[in-house]
């Protein structure tokens, strides 16, 4: 419960900077950590988004390293970013709080992310459904 309070305080702190107290993250299924500081500088090193996303990476059954569905590097408007799915807030509150604290410590900008699912997430869900149906299953 204490972790949830810390997360809410961090989100409200980021929101206050932009919206004079309104929580701009309410209802957003995704939060985007942008690779731009509050002073407008590009965050370095250039592979920071991949490094940060790598903290929740797992090896697939085939032995490939794969990003978590809750944390992935993206490019948005030519800026390196990390998209954080809000599901992580409940699945792993410590990791979620770490990500918010990382952004705060490095003075990185945050914004609400997509409201709809990303195309790669839809494709992964479809593949999982097909795999669960088994071979020879009819739609």
List keywords for this structure.
5 helices, globular, two-stranded antiparallel sheet, 6 strands, alpha+beta, 139 residues, four-stranded antiparallel beta sheet
Structure description:
By secondary structure, the protein is α+β, with helices and mostly antiparallel strands. The chain contains 5 helices and 6 strands. The strands form 2 sheets. A 4-stranded antiparallel β-sheet has the order 4-5-1-6. A two-stranded antiparallel ribbon has the order 2-3. A hairpin with a 5-residue loop joins strand 2 (58-59) and strand 3 (65-66). The mean pLDDT is 81.
Please describe the topology of this protein.
Elements: H1 2-19, E1 30-37, H2 48-53, E2 58-59, E3 65-66, E4 71-76, E5 79-85, H3 87-91, H4 93-105, E6 108-112, H5 119-133
Antiparallel strand pairs: 1-5, 1-6, 2-3, 4-5
Helix pairs in contact: 1-4
């Amino acid at each position: 419960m204490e972790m949830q309070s810390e997360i809410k305080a961090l989100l409200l702190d980021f929101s206050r900077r932009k919206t004079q107290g309104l929580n701009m993250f309410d209802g957003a299924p995704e939060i985007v950590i942008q690779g731009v500081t509050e002073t407008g500088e590009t965050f370095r090193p250039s592979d920071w988004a991949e490094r940060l996303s790598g903290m929740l990476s797992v090896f697939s059954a085939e032995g490939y390293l794969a990003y978590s569905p809750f944390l992935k590097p993206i490019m948005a408007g030519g800026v390196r970013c990390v998209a954080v799915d809000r599901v992580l807030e409940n699945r792993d509150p410590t990791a979620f709080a770490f990500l918010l604290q990382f952004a705060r410590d490095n003075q990185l900008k945050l914004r609400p992310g997509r409201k709809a699912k990303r195309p790669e997430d839809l494709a992964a869900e479809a593949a999982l459904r097909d795999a669960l149906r088994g071979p020879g299953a009819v739609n």
